[in-house]
Amino acid sequence: MKLSLRGEYALRALLVLGLDHVENDAVVRIQNISDRQHIPKRFLEQILNDLKTAGIVESKRGIAGGYRLRKSPDHITLAEVIRYIEGPLAPVSCVSERYYEKCSCPDEKKCGIRSVMQEVRDAIVKILEGVTLAQLCERVRKLQGDHSNPLDYII
Amino acid sequence: MKLSLRGEYALRALLVLGLDHVENDAVVRIQNISDRQHIPKRFLEQILNDLKTAGIVESKRGIAGGYRLRKSPDHITLAEVIRYIEGPLAPVSCVSERYYEKCSCPDEKKCGIRSVMQEVRDAIVKILEGVTLAQLCERVRKLQGDHSNPLDYII
DNA sequence: ATAAATCTATACTAAGTCAATAGAGATTAT
DNA sequence: ATAATCTCTATTGACTTAGTATAGATTTAT
Predict the structure, then answer these.
(1) Nearest one of A144, A135, A128, A125 to A15, comparing CA atoms
(2) Residues A51-97: tens digit of each pLDDT
(3) What is the spatial distance between Cα B87 and Cα B68, in angstroms, rounded to a whole number?
(4) What is the distance between the alpha carbons of residues B84 and A91, in angstroms, rounded to a whole number?
(5) Is B110's Cβ below 8 Å from some Cβ in A?
(6) Where are the beta strands (DSSP E) in B34-96?
(7) Helix axes B78-86, B112-130, angle to 10 degrees
(8) Around B19, how many Cα atoms within 13 Å sit in the side-chain half-sphere?
(9) How far is the CA of B104 from the C1' of C15 (A)?
(10) What value, to the nearest 5°, has the Cα angle with vertex A74 and ends A58 and A19?
(11) What are the DSSP calls for B99-140, one per residue?
């Protein structure tokens, strides 16, 4: 896979949106995300815009504008995000389900390398489709010792 | 991971050397490998030279020259080959054991993404360190219907 | 109404990587 | 000697990555 910085930034931005996610229509400013995650702001703008096109986040414009999740965090998987930002999860495209491309090997059906790469793909997909943004947020809260309960900030 | 063509060619070339491997000092010509695997010859020259530097193959020069494995096929793992040709197996370098690099996230120890990527890395490594070139050759022989038993050619 | 802060859209760029290709040299069996 | 091989270094063209830049559209507080 080899996640690019672009993909990593996308996940980190979504993590912030996930941690701040509440059921009203509050939005988070790009500047805020940029500060908390040390992501270059102008670059982050592009990425969030991509995520918007992907239907993962939505935005509000104007002086009180910003981004929020468009779907519930437990309906967003890491696989989905990475696929959208990076492309195939498979290490070679001849084992990719949705980005399949024929490779140059003499006979794909008898290709031993392909069969190993298939296993690798399946292992990667299993993990990344199994982790939702909600679970990721939960991990982070646990790692941070469960301070900063987001409910504290309402009222 | 996203294996490059270079890495895929390396595996395919080693597969040929593995299938042709016998305990005398017979070598296989680059031209031969290139023909059987449809790999551009001059490009393959570079790759085999890299594999030589890595200590995985050895070469014989001159008119009857060529390449052969330097180690027994069951002592060559796919992980080892890919690491040498491509670099880290980990999707992000902050979870790489031998190519570790600090990433830009606020706190690595509390990074939820990192902990997921760690799982991905471990899954990839487990598969690729678990498959030797000998096993790969065996898979190929099975896939090809077990014709061409190499013992047939030894008299 | 206006200003100010935000998001939107497109374009550009500098650096790096990938996949070769090229040319000249060294080695060795015949 | 010679011809086929491996060896070594350099170059190239296309592409990707990680931004930066510029200008514009939208919304809200005042």
Answers:
(1) A135
(2) 999 999 999 999 999 999 999 999 999 999 999 999 999 999 999 99
(3) 23
(4) 16
(5) yes
(6) 57-60, 66-69
(7) 120
(8) 22
(9) 20
(10) 65
(11) S----SSS-GGG-HHHHHHHHHHHHHHHHHHH-BHHHHHHHH
* Predicted model pTM: 0.92
Provide φ and ψ at B28, rounded to 5°. -115, 135
Q: What band does B154 get if pLDDT is binned at 50, 70 and 90?
A: very low
Report the alpha-carbon distance of residue A63 to residue B43 in Å, rounded: 56
* Confidence label for A152 from pLDDT (cuts 50, 70 and 90): very low
Q: Is the CB of A60 under 7 A from strand D?
A: yes
The alpha carbon dihedral of A82, A88, A91, A97 has a sign of positive
pLDDT (tens digit per residue) in B60-74: 999 999 999 999 999
Select from A105, A127, A136 the Cβ nearest to the Cβ of B120: A127
Q: Name residue A51's amino acid.
A: L
Query: What residues are paired with B68 via a beta bridge?
Result: B58
User: The tokens 């990475």 sit on which residue?
Assistant: A82
Q: Which tokens in the block code for residue A61?
A: 């414009």
| CA dist list (Å): A24 to A69, B14, B72, B103, B127 | 11, 58, 63, 33, 45
Alpha-carbon distance of A12 to A39, in angstroms, equals: 9
Give yes or no for A148 touching B (CB within 8 A).
no
Strand D proximal to B67 Cβ, under 7 A: yes
A144 CA to chain B: closest CA distance, Å?
A: 6
Note the strand D nucleotides within 7 A of protein beta carbons: 3-10, 17-22, 25-29
Measured CA to C1', the nucleotide nearest B45 is D6
- Structure letter (DSSP) for residue A59: E
